[in-house]
Design goal:
Blueprint lengths: L4 H13 L2 H9 L2 H10 L24 H12 L10 H4 L5 H11 L9 E10 L2 E10 L5 E7 L13 H11 L2 E6 L10 H16 L5 E11 L1 H15 L8 E4 L10 H5 L8 H11 L24 E8 L3 H13 L4 E10 L10 H19 L1
Parallel strand pairs: 3-4, 3-5, 5-6, 6-7, 7-8
Antiparallel strand pairs: 1-2, 2-4
Helix pairs in contact: 1-3, 1-13, 4-6, 7-13, 8-9
Keywords: Hydrolase, Signal
Pfam families: Abhydrolase_3
Protein name: Alpha/beta hydrolase fold-3 domain-containing protein
């Protein structure tokens, strides 16, 4: 009997890397470990062949070579810094996803085969409609469901920018992933994205069977601003006494408004997310800075009791690393079962880059394993 591809990735990550925190720097230079991960990710090209062309950037002396190569591609587009742009202009900038795709083309890395179908659905929400994209395994259900919220500071990005994350989770997990195109600021200010996030969760609860889903196995997940939305959707479900998700996956979540945490100070100039960008996101999403104290933004001050088991993933070279650590500690203090993992040598947005980053392969395998455990209970 053949093992499923994601199981190979889990095994490779476990055996070859052992621990991302203790061995990440070692694995970056270990060609055999990287080669194994590349093959199990579906790529015949060694990820060890991906190398940066320039010197290590001052803002990230510990950056791993593949991650640096992605950041060099992104910088090479010559886009204006987002804080100098309007939201409409910023949405036209190149994204880390563009950099990954161009790096794949340069190294002739093929996209992994997809075993999921996609479909779309517009649903009504207060004051308008939002779009959902369903990633559904190519087999009979019912399947577990993951309601997924993309990143972008509540202002930029879309379902396409985060397609790789959603598609990979659906494929490796064997689950329906519902990716939510919540409305963006400044056109729609706080708390619109938060309200849309919960509305999408409620729609999935009511329509799970119609999308081949198992209503008893629904989780929430998100990256960055989407990690904040995933946590908030679970809190809203608890408070409004609807069925709780069975698990929360939050990848480098926005968890509080203080921009003087240790990681904000150490990685203020990091890429692709820096401190000025976070200030720009806050300015665009909030109606006033007083709203930064709202527990939906300041999650570390929210009531976190009674939430489902949670997984928090953080990146070392990221202003939001401390946010992830803080919300993990607060969840644990509230009695929530929490598992966390930090990935050294990589930046914000690394999670969806499994075609070029060994750390992303490992992070996705870890996330899938955590979700599978919650679905099996």
């Amino acid at each position: 009997m053949k093992m499923k591809p994601f199981m190979y990735a889990v095994l490779a990550a476990t055996v070859a890397l052992a621990s991302c925190q203790s061995n990440a720097n070692k694995s970056a230079g270990d060609s055999s470990a990287i080669d194994t991960l590349a093959v199990e990710a579906g790529n015949p090209v060694s990820l060890n062949s991906i190398r940066p062309t320039g010197a290590t950037p001052a803002w990230a002396p510990d950056i791993h070579p593949q991650m640096q190569a992605v950041m060099e591609k992104l910088a090479g587009y010559g886009d204006k810094p987002i804080p100098q742009l309007t939201a409409v202009e910023a949405r036209k900038n190149h994204t880390p996803t563009d950099a990954v795709k161009d790096l794949m083309a340069q190294y002739k890395i093929a996209a992994p085969p997809s075993n999921v179908d996609t479909s779309g659905k517009d649903i009504p929400v207060a004051g308008g409609t939002i779009h959902l994209r369903m990633y559904t395994p190519k087999s009979t259900g019912p399947f577990p469901v993951v309601v997924y919220y993309h990143g972008g500071g509540f202002v930029i990005a879309n379902l396409d920018v985060y397609d790789a994350s959603a598609r990979s989770l659906a494929d490796k997990l064997g689950a329906v992933v519902v990716s939510v195109a919540y409305r963006l600021a400044p056109e729609k200010k706080f708390p619109t994205a938060h309200n849309d996030a919960f509305a999408a969760y409620q729609w999935v609860l009511a329509n799970a069977a119609a999308i081949k889903g198992d209503v008893k196995k629904i989780a929430v997940a998100g990256e960055s601003a989407g990690g904040n939305l995933a946590l908030n959707a679970a809190i809203a479900a608890r408070d409004k006494k609807v069925a709780l998700p069975v698990h929360i996956l939050a990848v480098y979540p926005v968890a509080q408004p203080d921009m003087n945490t240790p990681s904000y100070q150490k990685y203020a100039a990091a890429k692709p997310l820096d401190k000025p960008m976070m200030a720009w996101f806050v300015k665009n999403y909030l109606n006033s800075m007083a709203e930064a104290k709202d527990p939906r933004i300041n999650l570390v001050a929210a009531n976190l009791k009674g939430l489902p088991s949670s997984t928090i993933i953080t990146a070392q070279i990221d202003p939001l690393q401390s946010d992830g650590e803080m919300i993990a500690d607060k969840l644990k203090a509230a009695g929530v079962t929490v598992d966390t993992k930090n990935f050294d040598g990589v930046t914000h947005e690394f999670f969806g880059m499994a075609t070029v980053l060994p750390e992303a392969v490992e992070a996705q395998a870890y996330a899938v394993d955590q979700l599978k455990k919650s679905f099996s209970k």
